[in-house]
């Protein structure tokens, strides 16, 4: 019973670490990203456990990783583009 929440938090933290390594300039502070990853994974585990019921640990963890990834994707900022010459005039 404790493995689902603990595993989902660890998966969320791992996803947050991967996001910070691959998109460091497009994400907010590290603290916000790690918090969002952990809470997204935990929410995903809660949601999947509510939908599937007990006894589906692997499916719950997979669903929690997917929902954690979606939650982290909400933090990504668009790329900043320099103004072109015609727009600056």
From TrEMBL:
Record-annotated membrane-spanning stretches: 6-23, 32-51, 57-76
Listed name of the protein: Integral membrane protein
Taxonomy of the source species: Bacteria, Bacillati, Actinomycetota, Actinomycetes, Kitasatosporales
This protein's UniProt keywords: Membrane, Transmembrane, Transmembrane helix
Top-level taxonomic group: Bacteria
């Amino acid at each position: 019973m404790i493995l689902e929440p603990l595993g989902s938090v660890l998966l969320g933290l791992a996803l947050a670490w991967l996001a910070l390594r691959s998109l460091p300039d497009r994400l907010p502070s590290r603290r916000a990203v790690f918090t969002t990853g952990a809470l997204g994974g935990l929410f995903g585990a809660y949601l999947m456990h509510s939908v599937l019921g007990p006894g589906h640990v692997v499916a719950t963890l997979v669903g929690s990783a997917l929902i954690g990834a979606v939650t982290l994707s909400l933090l990504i900022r668009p790329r900043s583009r320099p103004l072109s010459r015609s727009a600056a005039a």
